[in-house]
């Protein structure tokens, strides 16, 4: 991790001494920086090399502060993944709502999260990193994210029963395929160009069963 990455979250470090922020606001600030620091550490160092110390350094907080919010490194990684998933889902919902053609929102539903991930390359890497499946609870979080994204995709595709969790959805299989698609582009260092690939992914996610 270079000095520029360390400073990214250090810029948001609260000033020493007296201030008017409540304890809750201070805690929210430090926890947010830890999630951001964790994402940057995973992106630059890789899962095998990340430690509590590297996350704390990236977040510009002490190890003691780290343990105020997380019991261990795995818990922090899980929370960071959940943050990445939540941001991607929020972007997809916003894209669906602002679709130029309300009758066909799929393209906007796909483009918006790609724009979000292009602006947050560390989060794009986290969502596609298979190594993180070893983190306790992350497989469940990944499945939940895929199911929510599949339901949103199914609605954008106009599938009947899209919100019925007991109904097998073609969209769920397509979302899992999209993860592989994203992983290939992350591996090829093409994250910044993700929005340019939106038509390709839209075509993939437009497929229907025969």
Assembly annotation: single chain
Largest sheet: none
Instruction: Summarize the amount of helix as a percent range.
Output: 55-70%
**Count of distinct structural domains:** 2
Q: CATH fold name of the largest domain, please?
A: Tetracycline Repressor, domain 2
The total of beta strands comes to 0
Itemize the secondary structure elements and their pairings:
Layout: H1 3-10, H2 23-45, H3 52-59, H4 63-69, H5 73-97, H6 106-119, H7 121-128, H8 138-156, H9 170-187, H10 198-204
Helix pairs in contact: 1-2, 2-3, 2-5, 2-7, 5-6, 5-7, 5-8, 6-10, 7-9, 8-9
What attributes characterize this protein structure?
Tetracycline Repressor, domain 2, mainly alpha, 210 residues, elongated, disordered N terminus, 2 domains, single chain
């Amino acid at each position: 991790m270079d000095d520029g990455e360390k400073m990214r979250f250090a810029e948001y470090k609260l000033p020493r001494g007296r201030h008017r922020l409540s304890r809750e606001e201070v805690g929210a600030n430090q926890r947010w920086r830890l999630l951001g620091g964790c994402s940057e550490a995973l992106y630059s160092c890789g899962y095998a090399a990340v430690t509590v110390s590297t996350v704390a350094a990236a977040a510009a907080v002490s190890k003691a502060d780290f343990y105020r919010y997380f019991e261990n490194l795995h818990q922090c990684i899980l929370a960071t993944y959940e943050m990445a998933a939540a941001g991607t889902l929020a972007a997809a919902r916003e894209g669906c709502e602002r679709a130029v053609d309300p009758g066909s929102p799929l393209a906007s539903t796909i483009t918006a999260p790609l724009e979000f991930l292009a602006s947050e390359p560390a989060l794009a890497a986290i969502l596609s990193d298979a190594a993180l499946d070893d983190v306790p609870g992350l497989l469940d979080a990944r499945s939940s994210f895929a199911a929510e994204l599949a339901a949103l995709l199914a609605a954008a595709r106009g599938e009947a029963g899209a919100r019925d969790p007991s109904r097998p959805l073609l969209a769920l299989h397509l979302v899992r395929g999209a993860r592989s698609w994203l992983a290939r582009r992350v591996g090829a260092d093409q994250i910044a160009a993700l929005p340019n690939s939106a038509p390709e992914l839209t075509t993939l996610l437009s497929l229907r069963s025969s």
